[in-house]
Write a structure and sequence with these properties.
Helices cover 30% and strands 15% of the residues. The chain is an alpha/beta fold and 310 residues long. The protein has three domains: 37 residues; 108 residues, no CATH class; 114 residues, no CATH class. The strands form two sheets. Strands 1-2-3-4-5-6-7-8-9 form a nine-stranded parallel β-sheet. A two-stranded antiparallel ribbon has the order 10-11. Helix 7 links the parallel strand 5 and strand 6. Helix 1 runs parallel beside helix 3, helix 2 runs antiparallel to helix 3 and helix 8 runs parallel beside helix 9. It is globular, with a radius of gyration of 25 Å. It comes from Linnemannia gamsii. This is F-box domain-containing protein.
């Protein structure tokens, strides 16, 4: 009887699943080296090389990418950062003649102004919005809400969700409250997360947020508070956004009594990042920490105190 041959254990790197996971922890230089090992390795490490494009660091290098290479590997791009010129936007577009819509992109996170997503073809004022090329887009950071220079966009008839059904996270950097509120009211479906500057939190933008009351989970308000009147809009959000879990407004100083007397309609709120009257100076906060007081009881549950920013 011949002995049964013993199978030698495989090298873990022979498994494509292992290689794909390792690629997530390597820098681009090492991923490029691994791509040269074999054809199989090439396919496992290529997505990591193309995953993120930061135009603040790689604009020159990315500008040298030929249309053929972009056609072949552009679908791996999931995040585009720091798009500041129309050239950056145009470099992400599919360039094959005769193809009006390219939906093969895996781009999920985009940082681009409102005008940039429309002013991407100066020769054609009626060119469609750039976002229709990114059907898997999940988040959009808008650093400006100004209109494109070659045409006027009717904000009342925009629906970005029709081309980007997964787009549920918005981050506004601009303080143009009127444009922001119009977009929140009609341009997106069932947002789950929204970030906006404190100076833009007025009645119209609050109504825009409340229009997503069934879906909003996270609201982040950045910058310094401008008027005490903004507290009433925060309390209105508490009352109506029933699925809210995170509210971050670290410059807001709350009166405990007014918050306790407010009817809370968000029972699942788990993170409230505000300051409370009497606990808004470093000595007071440090005193609470030394006494191991890390939560505030508001009559329903505990809420964590934010750390001092000083």
């Amino acid at each position: 009887m011949q002995p049964t041959p013993v199978c030698r254990p495989r090298n873990p790197l022979d498994l494509p699943e292992i290689r794909s996971q390792i690629a997530l922890f390597l820098d681009r230089k090492n991923c490029l080296a691994c791509m040269r090992v074999s054809r199989d390795w090439f396919h496992d490490f290529a997505p990591a090389v193309w995953h993120t494009v930061d135009f603040a660091k790689e604009a020159t290098a990315f500008g040298k990418v030929t249309p053929g290479i972009l056609d072949k590997y552009g679908g791996f791009i999931a995040t585009a950062l720091n798009l500041t010129t129309m050239g950056h936007v145009q470099s992400l577009q599919h360039s094959k003649p005769g193809i009006a819509l390219y939906t093969g992109s895996k781009l999920r996170h985009l940082s681009a102004s409102f005008s940039q997503v429309f002013l991407h073809d100066e020769a054609d004022a009626a060119a469609p919005c750039l976002l229709i090329h990114f059907p898997l887009l999940e988040s959009w950071h808008l650093n400006s809400l100004t209109q494109p220079t070659n045409r006027r966009i009717d904000l009342g008839h925009l629906n970005f969700s029709s081309g980007c059904p997964l787009l549920k996270t918005l981050s506004f950097q601009s303080e143009e409250a009127e444009v922001m509120s119009t977009m929140l009211l009609g341009s997106f479906d069932r947002l789950t997360s929204c970030t906006l500057p404190a100076k833009s939190l007025i009645m119209s933008t609050t109504l825009g947020l409340i229009s997503h009351l069934d879906s909003l989970v996270t609201i982040t308000i950045t910058g310094e508070i401008n008027e005490a009147a903004q507290m009433q809009w925060v309390l209105l959000i508490f009352k109506l956004c029933r699925n809210l879990q995170v509210l971050s407004f670290e410059s807001l100083v709350c009166d405990i009594e007014s918050v306790e007397n407010c009817w809370w309609g968000c029972p699942d709120l788990r993170e409230l990042r505000v300051r409370f009257k009497g606990l808004d100076t470093p000595p007071d906060i440090e005193g609470c920490l030394k006494q191991k007081l890390r939560t505030v009881w508001l009559g329903t549950k505990d809420y964590y105190l934010p750390p001092s920013s000083d």
